[in-house]
Amino acid sequence: MKHILRLLLLPCLCALALDARAAGPQNFTPLKLGTLRGLAVDAADNLYVPNPKPATLHRITPAGVATVLPTAPIRDLFAVAIAPDGTLYACESIHALAHRLGKDGATPLAPAGSTNTFLGPTALACDAAGNLFVAENDCNLIRKVTPAGVISIHAGAFRQPGSQDGPAATARFTNPRALTIDRAGNLFVGDEKDFTIRKISKDGLVTTVAGKIGEKGSADGKGLDARFAAPRGLAADRAGNLYIADTPNHTIRKLTPGGVVTTVAGKAGESGFADGLVSAARFNNPRALAFDSAGNLYVADSDNHAVRMISPDGKVTTVAGVLPPATGAAR
User: Fold this and answer.
1) Is the pTM of this model over 0.85?
2) CA 272 to CA 279: how far, in whole Å?
3) Contact 105, 22 (CB under 8 A)
4) Which CATH superfamily is domain 29-321 in?
């Protein structure tokens, strides 16, 4: 299967447009959403929700106003990421080209015949310098795209699965599925089929920081004693905590800078749809994660076709999608 990485250049919104909360959407916005696989929040706390099919990119303001951004000819949106200058990136799962998308449509970033293609892009993340990192699930590697458009392999090797730590060039991954970058510039990888969380430091050293290679499960604990079923979404808060969407376990996990893993929302093995306190909330295959400036954590609740929000005080609400019956029954 071929795949596409596209670049969307959209106007940056002034932060003065924010309300006093300086936070993203709080109230419910009705949207017909498919199986969500990506989320992003910009510097103005606008929430970006890529609907896969038909490919539609929704932008929701902090006031809850939703607009559709131009994405043609994308056919299957997967993930989105936003650079510090407001440049919006998106990837899809149909072709194998990199594109810039403006008001007139898509323009390939690489010329015809270029080898700068992407196979199985499943996650995107931007660093403070504007570099884009792309997790290629099918190829078991992480690529880097500079602001000038130079594409290189950042870590791993083409279609060489493995679990080795060490220098980025010799490290190996097995189906990297999720990416995020913390405030220190470390790149974290959800290594799906190894059931681990990996860290790529700024100096290019890869280490396994949580989970045990080859052991699937759901267990809290210190670092390598923790277990995951499939880490498919990552986001880092300002304190350096890493949040993990453990998709098949239907839970949101937290990894502290000290290496302690806890379950912060949902219940392992119990899918459903319920808002409320994190202890009572239920999710159905949560995937992408994103923080706003107020510390609210947004969750792409993929099989509930909704965007959920976990507030800093531990309450879960639904902010976009189609609400299920009031009973909160699983879909």
Assistant:
1) yes
2) 13
3) no
4) TolB, C-terminal domain (2.120.10.30)
